[in-house]
UniProtKB/TrEMBL annotation:
<keyword id="KW-0592">Phosphate transport</keyword>
<comment type="subunit">
    <text>The complex is composed of two ATP-binding proteins (PstB), two transmembrane proteins (PstC and PstA) and a solute-binding protein (PstS).</text>
</comment>
<protein>
    <recommendedName>
        <fullName>Phosphate-binding protein</fullName>
    </recommendedName>
</protein>
<comment type="function">
    <text>Involved in the system for phosphate transport across the cytoplasmic membrane.</text>
</comment>
<dbReference type="Pfam" id="PF12849">
    <property type="entry name" value="PBP_like_2"/>
</dbReference>
<keyword id="KW-0472">Membrane</keyword>
<keyword id="KW-1003">Cell membrane</keyword>
<dbReference type="GO" id="GO:0006817">
    <property type="term" value="P:phosphate ion transport"/>
</dbReference>
<dbReference type="GO" id="GO:0042301">
    <property type="term" value="F:phosphate ion binding"/>
</dbReference>
<keyword id="KW-0449">Lipoprotein</keyword>
<dbReference type="InterPro" id="IPR011862">
    <property type="entry name" value="Phos-bd"/>
</dbReference>
<dbReference type="InterPro" id="IPR024370">
    <property type="entry name" value="PBP_domain"/>
</dbReference>
<keyword id="KW-0813">Transport</keyword>
<dbReference type="GO" id="GO:0005886">
    <property type="term" value="C:plasma membrane"/>
</dbReference>
<keyword id="KW-0564">Palmitate</keyword>
<comment type="similarity">
    <text>Belongs to the PstS family.</text>
</comment>
<dbReference type="InterPro" id="IPR050811">
    <property type="entry name" value="Phosphate_ABC_transporter"/>
</dbReference>
Length: 276
C-alpha cells in the first residue's frame, strides 16, 4: 500500500510538472495602446472581449491623453495611439494613419438642479469664452456659471474647441486631467458646466440639448447633433502592414462582437473608416 501511495504522489508531481512546462511553452502575444482617457471605457471593453476570443493575446492599454498617445506611437513605444480627435496634417506627414473606429458625442453637462435644458451653439460659445457669465442670461436662475474643462493637450478639449472654433479663447474656472473629475466637479458645484464623452453620462449630471438636439446614436449618425468627434486608433502605416496581433485587434473591432461592444458603451461604430 505504501508503494502504491508513493507511485500516486510521483504521478501527480509529474503531471503538474508537465502541465506547467506546457503552459510555459505558450508565448503571450502583447498589444500595447496608449492615449485618450475618453476612450478608456471602450478600450477596456474591447480588451475583455478580445482576450476572451484570443486567450494568447495580452492587451496592455495606458490612458495618458491623446497627444501623449500619438507621440508614443510615433516614437515606437506603443503599437496603437488612441486619439479622441482627428490627426493633424503634421502627424499624418510623419506616417501616422487615422483609423476611425467609433464616433463619440461631446455632451454638455450641468448639475441636476440646473433649470436650463437647452443651449444654442452661440450661447455655448459665449459661455466658454466668458461673454455669458450667469445662467439668467440663458433662461436659468440668477447664478454664476462655473466653467469646467479639460487640460491643454486633451483630445476632448481640442475637439470641443475646434468644433466651436474657439481655440485658445476659453476662460476656464477649473481645468482637470481626466474625464471622471469633470463629472465630479459638475455634480458637486451648483452652476457648473462641463463637457464629457457620451459614454460616461450617468444620472449624477444633467445633459443639455444643443440647438434643441439631444445626443444619441440616431442624432450622431444623421449628423443632427453637432458636437461629435472621432475615436481614432492611430498606427504607424496601414493596418495591413502591422503585426499579426494588431491586425487581430482591428479585425475584432470590425466583427459583429466588436461592433456590439462599441454600441454597448454608447458609441457609434464606423468600421468602414479603417485604412487597410
Amino acid at each position: 500500500m505504501k508503494k502504491f501511495g508513493i507511485l500516486v504522489v510521483v504521478f501527480i508531481v509529474c503531471v503538474a510538472f508537465l502541465s506547467s512546462y506546457a503552459n510555459a511553452d505558450v508565448e503571450t502575444e502583447k498589444i500595447s495602446l496608449n492615449g485618450s482617457t475618453s476612450m478608456e471605457k471602450m478600450v477596456n471593453a474591447l480588451k475583455e472581449g478580445l482576450e476572451d476570443k484570443y486567450p494568447e493575446l495580452l492587451i496592455e492599454p495606458q490612458f495618458t491623453g491623446s497627444s501623449a498617445g500619438i507621440e508614443a506611437v510615433l516614437n515606437g513605444t506603443t503599437d496603437i495611439g488612441n486619439s479622441s480627435r482627428y490627426l493633424k496634417d503634421s502627424e499624418k506627414e510623419k506616417g501616422l494613419i487615422e483609423n476611425i473606429v467609433a464616433i463619440d458625442a461631446i455632451v454638455i453637462v450641468t448639475d441636476t438642479q440646473n433649470k436650463v435644458n437647452n443651449l444654442t451653439t452661440q450661447q455655448l460659445i459665449d459661455i466658454y469664452t466668458g461673454k455669458i457669465r450667469n445662467w439668467k442670461e440663458v433662461g436659468g436662475e440668477d447664478l454664476p456659471i462655473v466653467v469646467v474643462g479639460r487640460e491643454a493637450g486633451s483630445g476632448t478639449r481640442s475637439a470641443f474647441e475646434e468644433i466651436l472654433h474657439i481655440e485658445e479663447q476659453c476662460q476656464y474656472a477649473n481645468e482637470v486631467n481626466e474625464t471622471g473629475p469633470i463629472i465630479a466637479k459638475v455634480q458637486s458645484i451648483h452652476g457648473a458646466i462641463g463637457y464629457v464623452s457620451l459614454d460616461v453620462i450617468d444620472e449624477t449630471v444633467k445633459p443639455l440639448a444643443i440647438d434643441g438636439i439631444q445626443a444619441s446614436e440616431e442624432t450622431i449618425q444623421n449628423g443632427q447633433y453637432s458636437l461629435q468627434r472621432p475615436f481614432v486608433m492611430a498606427t504607424k502605416d496601414t493596418i495591413e502592414k502591422q503585426n499579426e496581433e494588431v491586425q487581430k485587434l482591428f479585425q475584432y473591432i470590425q466583427s459583429e462582437d466588436g461592433q456590439k461592444i462599441i454600441r454597448a458603451v454608447g458609441l457609434v461604430p464606423t468600421s468602414n473608416k479603417m485604412s487597410y
